[in-house]
Amino acid sequence: MFDWISQWGRSGLDAISVIGRSGIFLFRSLLGRPATGFFGLLIKQLYSVGVLSLLIIIVSGLFIGMVLGLQGYNILVDYGSEQAIGQMVALTLVRELGPVVTALLFAGRAGSALTAEIGLMKATEQLSSMEMIGVDPLRRVVAPRLVAGFISMPLLAMIFSVVGVWGGLLVGVDWLGVYDGSFWANMQQSVDFREDVLNGIIKSCVFGFVCTWIAVFQGYDSAPTSEGISIATTKTVVYSSLAVLGLDFILTAVMFGNL
Amino acid sequence: MRTRLVEFSVGGFMVAGFAALVMLAFQVSGLTLKSAEDVYHVYAQFDDLGGLSVRGKVSVAGVTVGKISDIRLDSKSYNALVEMEIYRSVNELPKDSIASIQTAGLLGEKYISISPGAEEEFLKEGDTLFDTQSALNIEKLISNFASSKLGQ
pTM of the predicted model, to two decimals? Predict the structure, then answer.
């Protein structure tokens, strides 16, 4: 009985100390003077985190936009207001689906790779040998990856939204024959730059921050075994997805919910 | 060669991202570079807004000339006080113009339509339109009609 209670207490303490460690980890890797050659390292990470994620983002954005167009048309045509399809596709993409789906894909595509890479570096003692020769692995390995994640996510989300709108245009206007003048007019009348587009970008910045932080920290904090790396990779995807969906509700409530 | 390719594709990625932002701003949200000084404020009181909302459009003869910037309750008269932003370029609206709440299409959104009056003086910043027409309330119309039928 006492064992059981003390185990609960221990896991509670563990959970809080993980949060503390991840906070210290974030501060130590971002504050202070960046590593020499930081810019070159950043470019390399932007390539592997951002550019290599482009394909999956563009393809899923296109299909999600097309599905939105198709479903929206089927519902709206019953009310004779199929011109509102532009408004529907653009608002859903810019406000919700753009940031959220990009973040989920990003967690699966780039986040898991970051965790596995850093976890393997730790398991093969590359990180500790860096420390031995006087190079701070937090500055040299972790910081460029964090910054690359923060930069890539909003850009990817915007590209996702634009491709999605184009997919909706393709289905709605080119295939189903909605008049394209009212498609754009409806969209431009209902989408507000500050209210919708900027709030969507703020959302994706928050998601980018959280996803990359979780991914890099899980890799850095993983047990240095092959099993530890696999657990850390799983945790990255699960935690990032849950964090994104939970935060999305909170952010939506604050931004659009008149709370 | 390899690093050049990496640099080039990262550059392309950044450019594509910012191009997407510009596209979202101008094509999707229809952002125009009209600054805040380009509008003047006009007020109108209505008995019943019937679903009019902030950011709705203000039009003259179907041409959009501004938007609704604020809606609040006038605590003395218990009427709805609507604040409209009208573009400076449309500065020759007579003072006795009529503001009425209309619906775009059968199920569309509500907007304010201004029908110009005949007075020589024009509306300026802070003026109030006194001649207003509230939203057509279909439920009220039907109930009026039904009760008048019953009364016969």
Answer: 0.76
